[in-house]
Amino acid sequence: MSIHTPRAAKPVHRRTATSLAAAAVCLAVTFGGGTLAASSAFAATPSQTDIVLGVGANETQRNLAWYSATDTAQVAQFALASKVVDGAFPALAVSVSATGGATTSGEFNRFATLSELKENTEYVYRVGREGDWSATYSFRTQDFEGDFNFLFFGDPQIGSSGNVPSDSAGWVDTLNVATATYPDTELLFSAGDQVETASNEGQYEAFLQPDQLREIPFVATNGNHDVGSKAYQQHFNTPNLDTTVGTGSVTASGGDYWFIHKGVLFMDINSNSRDNAAHIAWMNKVVAEHGDEAKWKVLAFHHSIYSSGPHATDTDVIDRRNVLPTAISDLGIDLVLQGHDHSYARSYLIHNGEKANAAEEAGADSVVAGPGGVLYVTANSASGSKYYSLQNKNFWWLSAENQEKVRNYSAIDVSDEAITIKTLRSQANGDDKPVNSIVDQVTLTREVEPDTDAQQLQVTVPETAPGEFVWNIDGTNGLVDLGTAVDAGDHYSAVGSINPIRVTDTRSSGPEWSISAQVGDFTSGEKSFSGRYLGWTPSVVQSGGDAVAGERVASGFLGGDGLSVSSTLGHAKGGHALGTAKLDAGLELDIPVDVTDGTYKATLTLTALS
């Protein structure tokens, strides 16, 4: 059981699209994705640039973003690739009106969402307006359920070396290697720092050069080199964006966002904002509303809190490391993806900011997480624009670390049972470490199903004599949501009810029986308060077998022990009739105002005597 207690514009620049279709050439659609050349009747113009195919809120959507040279009404059009004839864009296309406005670089950004996509289907799309269309691109959806792969990239940071063409070439090569090796990958996931200078559109143009960013959904993370301008927010159309959390300023980008892909809840927070309490509250809300839809939970943010590079000892990183891990464990998050330190690191499983299992060996190729165990991965550079050396301080959290100063990427395979993170070299390091040789690999599985909600009721049920006296929790829902406690003057108050208990007694002699319960202390990390503040009002909601509800037990807030001592939920006297009864109890929790805010859990243990 748990309860949360309350507490100057640049001149306009004109850029040629990187994949303009040749007006005199007609090509068939390539089912692996890519640019579809337009017929002469549908020749592309250079007016639309910076096109990015972003991830949608779920598998049925794709979010598009692009820049236009003029402030005109724009649309995105998409159609079945099978309807393309002689390279001409299909007449039967869906048009989606775009939103947007002036950019910080003097252009105009546009957002549109392609919706109601079908699984295992090839689509073509273009953006612009009649007589002024972009090149035509294609993408394909895959199964909407089941196993999948996505690719994770650390800090491209184009321009960091001082040589934009070199950085861009490294970025392009990594994407080419990764997508050729994993042609069915479903997401391209960035750890942040897309560019060196947040407002530099030349660097963005180089970052956006690869056509994979128009073929495979891209997941952007806000890095410290991205936050200083609205350009990040104007280039990437992220789903379910909450700009009130991790908010930017008038000139800076901000916000947290989430999406669900094939049963995985992804949350991406803007760690440039150090309002950790706001991030935690937002994650609690998202998990409370959508956690039960997810078989895995993955969190991403830029500033690695468990790395081996120089940022590991930065004051701001230490602050995040002191605050975030307990909340991450409490939320049942399985995997955290990070960047910022331009070196590879993989943590031990970490629970509430401590090593979860003292016996876990360094570099193990498989780890089994118990409740609250979290794996943290930090990506090395995907472009080679900048590398940081390791600190070699034997940080307690490091299971694996690597810095060879060659480009890396991570291929992440997700199934119902496991997540495998394989980090590979996209650049050879001598003959013995060629392209696609493995830097590190680990498979994450779970000892038990993770919490699907931070607010749960855990019940210990003893064995009973089969066929004689049987009792169990009615239904399969093991969660009790007491919600967020409300201010009640001299205390905080929360209410709810247990999951009903069904009792069946078919013994001919009808011996006496009783069901009782006792709650332990409510805890949140190292904080706690007594279970005596929990009370209940038992009831019989389905009569049978002469069952009688137990007496009301008041919260111990004003005195008494509450449910911290064993209390009767229901009973039947000797010689009772045969039959089945269902017992329920309304819960009332009164919390002193001096209890520190947080999400608290307690275990309610039920015992049957007969």
UniProtKB/TrEMBL annotation:
<feature type="signal peptide">
    <location>
        <begin position="1"/>
        <end position="43"/>
    </location>
</feature>
<dbReference type="Pfam" id="PF00149">
    <property type="entry name" value="Metallophos"/>
</dbReference>
<feature type="domain" description="Calcineurin-like phosphoesterase">
    <location>
        <begin position="149"/>
        <end position="344"/>
    </location>
</feature>
<protein>
    <submittedName>
        <fullName>Purple acid phosphatase-like protein</fullName>
    </submittedName>
</protein>
<dbReference type="InterPro" id="IPR015914">
    <property type="entry name" value="PAPs_N"/>
</dbReference>
<dbReference type="GO" id="GO:0003993">
    <property type="term" value="F:acid phosphatase activity"/>
</dbReference>
<dbReference type="InterPro" id="IPR029052">
    <property type="entry name" value="Metallo-depent_PP-like"/>
</dbReference>
<dbReference type="InterPro" id="IPR004843">
    <property type="entry name" value="Calcineurin-like_PHP"/>
</dbReference>
<dbReference type="GO" id="GO:0046872">
    <property type="term" value="F:metal ion binding"/>
</dbReference>
<feature type="domain" description="Purple acid phosphatase N-terminal">
    <location>
        <begin position="51"/>
        <end position="141"/>
    </location>
</feature>
<keyword id="KW-0732">Signal</keyword>
<dbReference type="InterPro" id="IPR008963">
    <property type="entry name" value="Purple_acid_Pase-like_N"/>
</dbReference>
<dbReference type="Pfam" id="PF16656">
    <property type="entry name" value="Pur_ac_phosph_N"/>
</dbReference>
